[in-house]
Amino acid sequence: MSKTSEYYLDIYAVTRMIPKGRVTSYGAIAGFLGLPSARMVGTALNQCPKQVPAHRVVNRNGVLTGAAHFKPPSEMSRRLRIEGVKVKKDQVQDFKRVFWDPSLELKDL
DNA sequence: CTGATGACGTGTG
DNA sequence: ACACACGCCATCA
Hints:
The chain is mainly alpha-helical and 109 residues long. The chain is 39% helix and 7% strand. A two-stranded parallel ribbon has the order 1-2. The protein has a two-stranded antiparallel ribbon with strand order 3-4. The longest helix has 11 residues, at 6-16. The structure holds a DNA duplex (13 and 13 nucleotides).
């Protein structure tokens, strides 16, 4: 097991704050935390605890690029639909409407 | 140590 | 709209 880095915990913390029925992007989280690369967010979520709602994080276009990492892959879109997020072919519908920007709506911290 | 990889994003044609 | 190149850099083999 690789050691969990500090910023991993920050990424998990922000991800846990995403409201149910909303989504955000890897880049938004990276920008909010001041991380240099959005890739790190995806890398961190790849080994996140089950407690973390990683299915609420999509790429900048609202596409479920991380679906392949769920078991089964359809689990990501399934969870989002349960929460009221419309998904069609790994694409979040009304993306702009359900998008949750940490830097604008974060009340914690 | 070295090189490849990737749940990303931006730029260019 | 589409395709490709490139910067990014922690992690993996």
